[in-house]
Amino acid sequence: MLRCAELNLSDEALRGMDVGMVYDMLTEKANDGENYPVKGTSEDFKRIFG
Questions:
Q1: Residue 47's CB: how many other CB atoms inside 10 A?
Q2: Residue range(s) defining the domain that contains residue 27
Q3: Is residue 1 part of a domain?
Q4: 6: enclosing H helix or E strand
Q5: What percentage of residues in the chain have a pLDDT greater than 90?
Q6: Are 26 and 7 in contact (CB under 8 A)?
């Protein structure tokens, strides 16, 4: 519940989520503070995904 409080998730919001969704949100929150020195361009995405 502490992690849910850190994400400001109410009991009502949690009713519509499964554990995996909450873990994904925690992962994204942790990644917010990361610095990515190299960022992909649209050409990179086109090359990878066609």
A1: 10
A2: 1-32
A3: yes
A4: helix 2-6
A5: 32
A6: yes
